[in-house]
Design brief:
One of its GO terms (molecular function) is triose-phosphate isomerase activity. By secondary structure, the protein is α/β, with parallel strands linked by helices. It is built from 14 helices and eight strands. The termini are close together. The chain binds 1,3-dihydroxyacetonephosphate. 1,3-dihydroxyacetonephosphate binds next to β8.
Length: 260
């Protein structure tokens, strides 16, 4: 809906724990020669590789001046120090990361990340000049109980605690219903629009209408080239956060092309 809203469509590929740095280089190269300059201007295409791939991706994208963005899948809430295994916002910024995924359901589930930590990570990203891709979304039980809108908005409120108006515009929100992730069960365009429309309304209430109009909100969960068009046709949906389908260059390129 970019022509109407003025928001640039964004297709982001969350590779999760897939592809080593050599495979990463091959995939980004293939994306770059599969997509035209025009297509990459119309739609912002972003890859989110594992940490160990980022330096290689940076070198390739910078060296060849590719019109592809990149970022990370996680960030530490801390700035530096004795936090074994963690990666700081400053380190990611130094590698040129523009985006970082925060609050992904896999981290909430497997790494016990709660709303307080998600809020701290959102602030850590913003403090380093990196745009958080803030993931929210309900599990199957909550969907079936009909509480999905309230649940997702509560996650949003908690993640944005004490985040100011000028900062919130830099954030990308991704609505990823947990039951749709990696299951092949994509939300209907209407289901996705219901929650994403409610997220935008909540942003307008918390901040301003103008702010809410500028924040990009994505859908994620079993997005493929054959279902993405109907989803991004919805008035409040500005793109997709793609998992499985993003580690195939041809498949992801088709999704990017359909983002317009
Ligand atoms: P799938 O596209 O594999 O369902 O994953 C979605 C996701 O979790 C993106 O962050």
């Amino acid at each position: 809906m970019a022509e109407v809203t003025g928001r640039r469509p964004l297709m982001a590929g969350n590779w999760k724990m897939n592809l080593n740095h050599l495979e990463a280089i091959a995939l980004v190269q293939k994306l770059a020669f599969t997509l035209t300059e025009q297509q990459l201007n119309d739609v912002e295409a972003v890859v989110l590789p594992p940490f160990v791939d980022i330096r290689s991706v940076q070198t390739l994208i910078d060296g060849d001046k590719l019109l592809i963005g990149y970022g990370a899948q996680d960030i530490s809430a801390h700035t530096a120090g004795a936090y074994t295994g963690e990666i700081s916002g400053a380190m990611l910024a130094k590698l040129g990361c523009q985006y970082v995924v925060v609050g992904h359901s896999e981290r909430r589930q497997y790494h016990a990340e709660d709303d307080t930590l998600v809020n701290a990570k959102v602030k850590a990203a913003l403090a380093s000049g990196i745009a958080p891709i803030l993931c929210v979304g309900e599990g199957l039980e909550i969907r079936e109980s009909g509480e999905h809108v309230g649940y997702t908005l509560a996650q949003l409120d908690a993640a944005l605690e004490k985040v100011k108006t000028d900062e919130v515009e830099k954030i990308v929100v991704a609505y990823e219903p947990v039951w749709a992730i990696g299951t092949g069960k994509v939300a209907t365009p209407q289901d996705a629009q219901e929650v994403i429309g409610a997220i935008r309304t909540r942003l307008a209430e918390k901040y301003t209408g103008g702010t809410a109009d500028r924040v990009r909100i994505l859908y994620g969960g079993s997005v493929k080239h054959d279902n993405v068009a109907a989803i991004i046709e919805q008035p409040d949906i500005d793109g997709a956060l793609v998992g499985g389908a993003s580690i195939d260059a041809e498949g992801f390129a088709r999704i990017v092309r359909l983002g317009k």
